[in-house]
Every structure is written in structure tokens, then in C-alpha cells.
Amino acid sequence: xxxxxxxxxxxxxxxxxxxxxxxxxxxxxxxxxxxxxxxxxxxxxxxxxxxxxxxxxxxxxxxxxxxxxxxxxxxxxxxxxxxxxxxxxxxxxxxxxxxxxxxxxxxxxxxxxxxxxxxxxxxxxxxxxxxxxxxxxxxxxxxxxxxxxxxxxxxxxxxxxxxxxxxxxxxxxxxxxxxxxxxxxxxxxxxxxxxxxxxxxxxxxxxxxxxxxxxxxxxxx
Length: 221
Hints:
The protein has 221 residues and is mostly beta strands. Helix content is 8%, strand content 48%. The longest helix is centred in the N-terminal third of the chain and has 18 residues, at 3-20.
């Protein structure tokens, strides 16, 4: 959907969410892993101020989520391997703190146990990072750095960023709004596995798309 059409809808969600929640449910077959014990609740009201609850619903176009603790949200059958691209359009609302991360999780394994994944995430201060998560520990693969193409947080409305990860045979490109913010060797990055969403504590997001494209034609030399 063009931004000219979806923008007003997304901005209207801030006021409409409490009423809309009465008829919205969690996306079918989706699962989640929160950074600390938390329960799924029926409304997003005040969830961002708590650490024992989160709200995650199918709200066409896409999903809406308000996190108490941070977490990874995923469908266990949405996976990627070989050469592929993952892309997601995400709207971040001003309730999300400046230092709260949001974005993509890739290479998810054992998400119901000793979890591992790689996240490509943004912050409201206009920075981006690539992080490796093992259990409860996160380590930077590419440390937080400013990205000229990252739209920073605004106090008066939602901001839109399109995250894309292009996984080639030897190189991985991490892009925001069509521009590279990092290029890393694929070797050593375990990116094959479950694909999902990563949102930090207190994040309030509307995610209109999460698309995985498998590239089967021969790659450019």
C-alpha cells in the first residue's frame, strides 16, 4: 500500500487502538519469546509501562505490538535459507523510548529453549546495529552507529522505516529505506532459520509487512 494511503491510517491507530483491541486477537499460529516472563493481554493500554505483559494482534494491514519486556515474535514456519532477502515496513510510535530497539530477527533456532538469533535493529536516536543473541546475552556484531537513512523518533507522531537484509553467498547487506547501513561477511553469521520481529522493552509498533524472498537464479559473480 502506498505511504500516501497507509500513513494516515497508521497515525490514526494511536487514538483508535484501545477500542480496536476489543475485537482483535493474536496472529494465528504465531509464537513469542519475551526477555522475561510476561503474559499476552487483551489490550495495549499502559502495557509499555509494565514488565509483565505485552500486546500483539493482527491489525490489517499487518500487526500491532506493544511490549512490556522486550521479545521476539515469530511464526515457526516462516524460515529462510540459501540466498534470500527479508524486508519489513515498520512504524514506530512516539511512546517508544529513544534507546528502545526494534526491527528484525533472523536465523532463529531453539526459540522455545536455548535460543539463538541475529537481530537487525534500529533506535529512535537514528542508530542501527546488528546483534547476536545467545540465551539471555546479546553481543554486538556491528555496534550501534548512526545511519543517515534511518528516520529518527518524533515526539508528535509515528515514523516509518523499511528494514531490509539481503543475504548473498558471501556478503550480507543491512539496509534502511533503501540505503546500506552495514555490509558484513556472511561467514560467521548464522542467518538461516526462523525469521521474525524483534522489539525492545516498551516498544509500540505497527508492522505492515514481513516478507521473505528466496533467490534461486544464479547470483552475479
